[in-house]
Amino acid sequence: MKSQPDARPERVLATLSLLIIALISLANVVVRYITDASFAFTEEFSVFLLVVLTFAGASVALRRNGHIRISLLERALPPALRRVLIVFQWLCGATVLSLIVWFGGKLAWEEHQWQSLSPGLGLPQWWYIAWLPVLAALMLLRLSQQCLDRLRGGLSDEP
């Protein structure tokens, strides 16, 4: 049996993000219970890490052909048209992800130039935003790998 395609860097990043969210949330609950005060950084970091977790998880799902799609039309088409549909699907996804990379990178650069600070902790805002184009670019890579695998017949549409 062929092993499933992997996206190890994204899996590690998603795992670390989830672990850190759990640890800082648990620490915040314990400190709040004991002292009636809470850590100021937990919400800002948790939201940031949740976005990282979402993009990294989506990248892993792309690589493993795990995103939800209705393949009824694909199965009904002859092989040549099916290949055209797969390329069209890739083109649509690649367009959206390329726009996220471009505009996310532009936004991160502008935030760096403007020296914007985060509202909660006063950290440079671009530290958070810079992850958006990086993770979208990884998703674009995984989408392209998935498309090539599907065109070669290496991935089944069945779970």
Automatic annotation (TrEMBL):
<feature type="transmembrane region" description="Helical">
    <location>
        <begin position="12"/>
        <end position="33"/>
    </location>
</feature>
<dbReference type="Pfam" id="PF04290">
    <property type="entry name" value="DctQ"/>
</dbReference>
<feature type="transmembrane region" description="Helical">
    <location>
        <begin position="125"/>
        <end position="143"/>
    </location>
</feature>
<protein>
    <recommendedName>
        <fullName>TRAP transporter small permease protein</fullName>
    </recommendedName>
</protein>
<comment type="similarity">
    <text>Belongs to the TRAP transporter small permease family.</text>
</comment>
<dbReference type="GO" id="GO:0022857">
    <property type="term" value="F:transmembrane transporter activity"/>
</dbReference>
<feature type="domain" description="Tripartite ATP-independent periplasmic transporters DctQ component">
    <location>
        <begin position="21"/>
        <end position="152"/>
    </location>
</feature>
<comment type="subunit">
    <text>The complex comprises the extracytoplasmic solute receptor protein and the two transmembrane proteins.</text>
</comment>
<keyword id="KW-0812">Transmembrane</keyword>
<dbReference type="InterPro" id="IPR055348">
    <property type="entry name" value="DctQ"/>
</dbReference>
<keyword id="KW-0813">Transport</keyword>
<dbReference type="GO" id="GO:0005886">
    <property type="term" value="C:plasma membrane"/>
</dbReference>
<dbReference type="GO" id="GO:0015740">
    <property type="term" value="P:C4-dicarboxylate transport"/>
</dbReference>
<keyword id="KW-1133">Transmembrane helix</keyword>
<keyword id="KW-0997">Cell inner membrane</keyword>
<comment type="function">
    <text>Part of the tripartite ATP-independent periplasmic (TRAP) transport system.</text>
</comment>
<feature type="transmembrane region" description="Helical">
    <location>
        <begin position="45"/>
        <end position="63"/>
    </location>
</feature>
<dbReference type="InterPro" id="IPR007387">
    <property type="entry name" value="TRAP_DctQ"/>
</dbReference>
<feature type="transmembrane region" description="Helical">
    <location>
        <begin position="84"/>
        <end position="105"/>
    </location>
</feature>
<keyword id="KW-1003">Cell membrane</keyword>
<keyword id="KW-0472">Membrane</keyword>
